[in-house]
Amino acid sequence: MGVSPGLVCAHHHLYSGLARGMPAPPSTPRNFLQVLEQVWWRLDRALDLEMLEWSAKLAAVEALQAGTTAIIDHHESPNAIEGSLTTLADACAEVGVRVSCAYGVTDRHGSDGAARGLAENDRFLSEGGRGMVGVHASFTCSDDTLAAAAELAAKHGVGVHIHVAEGADDLDAPERLAGLTRDDWLLIHGVHLRDDHGLSGTIVHNPRSNMNNAVGYAGPARFDNPVALGTDGIGADMLDEFRLAFVRQRESDVTASPDDAWGWLSAGWDLFPEARDDTVTWNYPTFDPWHLAYSTTVNAIDVDVDGEPVLRNGTTTRVDEAEVRAKAAEQAQRLFRALEELT
């Protein structure tokens, strides 16, 4: 059996755990902005804290079964902001997954919405929560909000977790963020960043999401910044994301090897060092990237987090998986009904 440290998902949206099977949007999105407006921005408006709890628990259970013990989450629920980060953190802790939380500040819901998002980040960090200051993206924020988020992050000694140049609507992100970014920032996607963009921080590559949203290929090997891997809310199977990152790179460069993508996966341990102390036992005899790049049925058998068993024989030890899945299914139906009632 192969053994490794716990894997790290460097960008997740735990609130999307209930999204599978959600009702179709009012009309078929034709571009990325319409995907946001008609799918994800409607979904986040429909969320409440009870939905968040079970969405996070379900996502955490599935993360452990994929050998992922640490998640860096980016959250938005504009009608359930206060307490949302604690709800997510507590749900992950109950399952046994390490998590770093951030609320995605935006001006989409007015200056009051932005202020409440900043306040939730401030409250959570002030109370000792593990996290960052979240920002949705510069194209949905005023300059004042971007500056306030950077100031709040500096106050708490953490970075900012922000989507950057994911689609064509955010092309001016380097100019908007100039002078604000620091090495501890997470710059998510970077699909449309110039090679010489001038921003500091780790770029988090999410190949499956980028393909799903038809926004293009980030080509992360071109950046001087550190690069890590995330899923953008499509589960937390980091070995699967690694394989996809490799073949996406190799699609246009036959000389590409799994080593680049493995380096991006490994960068997660720099962002969440505690995961190195976790132990995952796999149903595959080796943990060599050249093997794993072409082996598609590798699963975690046992997982220990901070020395404590959280998965044995593929089954969670701290929570009843069947109960989590049943409760999550109930909350998914509540969410779907709420979506159908949205105007």
Shape, per Cα inertia axes = globular
Name the average pLDDT. 97
- Largest sheet, if any? 6 strands, parallel
C-alpha-based Rg, rounded:
19 Å
* Beginning-to-end CA distance, first to last residue: 52 Å
Note the run of SSEs as H and E: EEHHEHEEHEHEHEEHEHHHEHEEEH
- Low-pLDDT ranges: none
Question: What's the total helix number?
Answer: 12
Helix- and strand-based class?
alpha/beta
Helix content: 25-40%
Give the tally of β-strands.
14
Tell me what portion of residues adopts beta-strand conformation: 15-25%
Task: Going across the biggest sheet, name each strand in turn.
Answer: 5-6-7-8-9-10
Protein topology:
Blueprint: E1 3-4, E2 7-12, H1 32-46, H2 49-65, E3 68-73, H3 84-95, E4 98-100, E5 104-105, H4 110-126, E6 133-137, H5 143-156, E7 160-164, H6 173-177, E8 186-189, E9 202-205, H7 207-212, E10 227-229, H8 238-250, H9 258-266, H10 268-271, E11 279-282, H11 289-292, E12 300-305, E13 308-312, E14 315-316, H12 321-341
Parallel strand pairs: 2-3, 3-4, 5-6, 6-7, 7-8, 8-9, 9-10
Antiparallel strand pairs: 1-11, 11-12, 12-13, 13-14
Helix pairs in contact: 2-3, 2-12, 4-5, 8-9
